[in-house]
Fold:
Amino acid sequence: MKPGHLNSSPGHLPLLRLLVLLALWEFLGDLHLIAQGALPSPSAILLQWWQDRAVYPPHIWATLKPALIGFVIGDAIAAAAAFAFVLLPMFEGLMRGFNIAVFGIPPIALGPVLVITLPGDWPQIVLAAVSVYFPTMVMTLLGLRDIDPRPIDVIRSYGGGEVAVLRWLRLRSCLPGFLSGLRVAAPAAILGAILAEFGSGARWGLGSFLLGSLGRGNPPRIWGIGLTATLMAAVAYGLCALLGRRFSASMAAVTIASGRIEANTSKRGGARLLTVLLGVGALGMPFLIWWAILKGFGVSPVIAKTPLGVWEYLINAPDAADSRDTILQALKESLPLAGVGLLIALSVALTLAVMGMIWRNLTALLMPAALILQTMPLVALTPMIVLLFGRGIAATLVVTVIVTFFPAFITIAQGLSKVPRASLDLLDVYGATRLQKLRMVSLPMSLPYVCAAARLVAPASLLGVMIAEWLATGFGLGNLLNTARGELDYGMIWAVAFVAVAVSVGFYQLVKLIEEGVLRRFSPASATS
Amino acid sequence: MDGSAKPLTDDIDLNGVTRTFSVAAKQVHALRGVSLHCAAGSFTALIGPSGCGKSTLLRITAGLERPDAGTVLIGGQTPAQKCRTGALGVAFQDSALLPWRTVRQNIALPLQILKRSTPQAHDKIDKLIELVGLEGFENARPAQLSGGMRQRVAIARTLVTDPSVLLMDEPFGALDQILRRSMNIELQRIWMEKRATTVLVTHGIDEALFLADRVVVMHRDPGRIGEIVPIPFPRPRLPELFSSPEFHKLEDEVADYLYGGATA
Structure:
């Protein structure tokens, strides 16, 4: 990653490489060599883009505006929540269930629910806000908590209390965390706004444009829309990154850091009764908030199902058994794909990251690409993949792997870059081979990061599967959601959304259990202290 | 600075201070029944093996930790009362500077916490920067300074409130031997100018002998005070003192107490 390292070759070489790549792409596209023209040439994409130039601005604006509003609202709530959590640790305990639920929500499952519940732009705004809440909240909280303890002593020795520490220390030191949270959140806001256009019937917006173009047999246009969305996400990411660089030269974390925050709170609390009460509260809180929002907005109970409404639909209603069977069938189709996709992505990410630890140039080569590619909105990606891989299981797997691979690779590689150089040097002293270094240091040390990565990207894998199913394959949960939306089966929409979140959260908790076991043995902290 | 007539120095009175920690389900007596009186304007060095509780004792004196039993009085008040008046200056092994603040802003921090920033404070900070020999670095940030310079900023920061009590926990522990010695000479000069009641925690026998009026040797398991050695050398003490026979003799004496305590 050292610039000097990469630029040891003449400066124009990367540009040259890019040009060669583009020329190759042009050649393949012009001759319709791949998938009967599913890969259009750059010139064809550009030409189509130029022909569509009149409709792009309104489409872009219809996506960008709610994304921006949602980004601001979601980040404000996230920052306020992080401050509240720091000042009142008990409150954080109470909101834990809510936080995990928000993290686990596949935006595509929430989209239809919002579309039928909220008017106007609000589904897009809310989905963008929901998408940014978790990364910003976690990174801000980490910045607020993870402060140098020594200046705290200085402040306290002048009689300063928690408020003084917050004012003089935490406020400023959380800034890099907050800004890198924004960086992760910015592309997520655009993805959220696009996903809320699915099934909204809105005329404008990149999501609507994409859906409307899917059946038209015009690959260059689909590629153009996808690349435009990608470019928007990349620009949003870049702007936030620029902002972040002004305040901190060395911000390591790019994906959301995880793990330590919850470890902090679970040990507090003292009395056992209190812990139990907090646990019950944390479990009930998401349902309470769900119920309160619907009551607050006064949406018709026919359209908007409260937790009780979903219970009614799945358990008590006359055709509840049928509904359950339908959902279970869909789960059987979706879950294995999500699981397999996740496993493939994690194995590839681990392999590359560990290899990168020994052959440093590999990481230097892959990391910049991974940083850019992870911002790619996967909706934009899916149609292109479908064009290339068809409408079967392969396409679903490819979408899932691509969506999960980049954040997983970044998490693992960045974690490994924190491994003390001395532990590898030590092995060098005894003339260890690369294989020995891999076995004795790299692999054991990467375990905690693999777990963190798995936890981070698990919800994304389900999201990837559902998007592919909705747009292309016609199987599983995604398809069920799409058909339920078409048939205005409100109960089913809510039930699928609920099940998707529950599965996501369940998977998250499962990985976390495994992670805790792993961390107890392989924690980098326990080795270095 | 603000013209109120506050006493220049305070005495420190530790009485039966006890502190236990539980480490891995075992009770560790960091301090048991420690009593010590430091007269106003005196310079006391605490020395002892790791785990003898000397840092804990200092943190309790500074009000950063509470004793399980016993009392701490500084000029007749508790540390908690005292620290809100800015009467305590505490320096740590690490400079504990805020990386986003300049030298001047770091030194001003205590005044801001105490809500005492005034226009006059600016001149005072200039004088302190001069006192610790950092003229020209007023607007540098910690990352641009060497370890020794950062530690000098930290010392200027402890002095900015005109403290009556200076508590220092191995302030030069992270510096190399040469730098450490020149900092010792500077600290003596600053102390003679300010005459605050000072407690210095250190690992270095030579540092303790050179600076202090008396050296308190502590022992561990449980943490307690062993011997108190008065240091008779007149001030100002010069660097030549380090190589004088009297100094070596006293050094050996303290070392005997230290290592005798470890094997007993």
In short: Residues 427 and 437 of chain A are 7 Å apart (CA to CA).
